[in-house]
Write a structure and sequence with these properties.
Layout: E1 8-17, E2 25-31, E3 37-45, H1 49-61, H2 63-66, H3 71-87, E4 93-101, E5 105-111, E6 115-120, E7 123-126, E8 145-150, E9 155-160, H4 162-165, H5 170-179, H6 183-193, E10 205-214, H7 217-233
Antiparallel strand pairs: 1-10, 2-3, 3-4, 4-5, 5-8, 6-7, 6-9, 9-10
Helix pairs in contact: 5-6
Amino acid sequence: MFSFAALPNYSVALRRASYREASEDRAVTVTTFTESLVLAVAGGVVGGGEAASLAIETVEFEAEKLARKGKRLWRGFFRALDDALVAHPDAGQTTLVALCLTSQKIIGASVGSSEAWWITADGHFDLTEAQKRKPTLGSGSAEPVPFELKLSGPGTLLLASDGLFKYADPIAITEAARSAVSADVAADALLALASAPAGRFYDDVALIVVRVETKSVRDTIALWTRFLHRFKAG
């Protein structure tokens, strides 16, 4: 059943880079049937490229279900994924931050050192501030921490592995994300912050930038009212 919730206007950019040929960091974006965005970034830990890939593939496969999960159920998803990685013979371990973005809220969970920030003109809010960095997924004892943030206006959502956050200043990250003219420009600027002066990267890095402009519920209802009038007239 269609809900007259405010629908988001957004643009998305995804980047991956590494100091080596094969990066162990992964990222994914999925637009669901309900026009939500499900996003995830995973950072392989010591040979954990397979674990990061499996985590991202699982998020992609479960995206429609994740878009309907409440805060407590995100923890359960992470714990089931932790068990699945332990059972896999070649998986290793990985960090993971995964979330669902709508025009009204951000909801998700994280474990490890990958982070998610909501950035506005007032600064940045670290959605993953309370996360447990260790143990990571694939250990069998990961402790995922769910988070939720109600949105009241436009902003920029940033997800990234620690290949960005370890080497770039928080103020520089915030400025690059919010001052760029588009999500693509912001993503390129953030990737540059994660690299050495010669352009070589210190670590694997994966990041997603989402520039969010919200529509009001009144505008959404007005749009659908005009559509229904035209439909009936036709």
